[in-house]
Design goal:
This protein is α/β, with parallel strands linked by helices. It is about 35% helix and about 15% strand. The chain contains 18 helices and 12 strands. A 6-stranded parallel sheet has the order 3-2-1-4-5-6, with helices on both faces. The protein has a 3-stranded antiparallel sheet with strand order 7-8-9, with helices on one face. β7 and β8 form a beta hairpin. The chain is elongated and about 85 Å long.
Amino acid sequence: MTTDNIFSGLKVVDLASFIAGPAAAVILSDFGADVIKVEPPKGELWRIANKIPPQPIAPEPYQWHLNNRNKRGVALDLKAPGAAKILRRLVEWADVLIVNTPHPARKKLGLEYEDVAPWNLRLIYADLTGFGEKGPDASLPGFDITAYWARSGLLSLTRDAGAPPTWPLSGSGDHATAVGLFSAIVMGLYRRERTGKGSYVTTSLLAEGIWAAGVSIQGALSGAKLFGLHDRKNPPNPAMNVYQSADDHWFVLLVTPDKQAALANAIGRADLLTDPRFSDPAKAAANAAALAGILDEAFATQPMAHWREVFEQAHITFGDVKAPADVINDPQLRANDIVVPLEGAGNKVTSTISSPMQVHGLAKVPAKRAPELGEHTDEVLRELGFASAEIEDLRAAGAVAAPRPIPAVA
């Protein structure tokens, strides 16, 4: 396994906040990029997300490490005197600049593509927005819950009949969007390899949410008949439903037509194959509630261990519905480097989630803790050509903050 990484030597400035933009930078860092994380002198709010419900509460900033590992940290006040000079040198240094500041604020800060592109004609300017660059809501701030989930239609679809919309899993849309933004950056880099020119690449939480809900949205675009909200007691197709075992274990069942006989035999109900209520698709649809009830009764007779063995032997597709506390013990995670060791965070934050792609024969960069606030400010400024006296002047002007002491690792 070679230690040469795909993005070794690639220089990235991460000016984004919260999750999606920084997570795209994490993917680049996993494959060798040198990423500088820029945040305001008081720190980014995501540093304290571990204390804000409904995020899982913990004494340590585990989310910060997840989305900012392997980066160098710079604390910079873009509004302060002298900050523009630092920004320019960062852009001149960078191959990739990731920004998610809303465009009205971005314009005031001189961060629009038109402002910075003349400083570096090979720059890949990666723009992440909530709702896209155009249209009546282009200037609105957006989180994945509002833009990816609610506005896209996903939140209206991922609930049971009779239930109100629920609060989605925080960050799930952001991490999906991060992969999209990473892909856009790689396309820009590929174009630069062919033309020598930089690119302005972009995606939005809304666009990524629409893509995720694409089957239903395309159906609506095409005039398809959409089924109502899912009702597991009366589903459109009982072979694609959620059931519960005798030991209260929920599982998802997905039986394709070629496996219906295998399922009937597996539950000891071969008679279902000749039952006139289910003899053709129209009758089966009309009697879907009855079949769902039969399957409910059958699955309630045995524990999940029994059904897991039965399904595996019959090659019937199913999925355990697991809670996070169960998921982390799944052997597939470590066998496939989905969860990997995290160095330096200390205490209980000893593992992290790797980015969701691998290249065979290529080792990712070992995961190291996220930076403390302003930890590498002086180091980076010196690399950008600032003398020690200039750095002190910038600090006196409030453009950069003094680095925080690094806490001892337990």
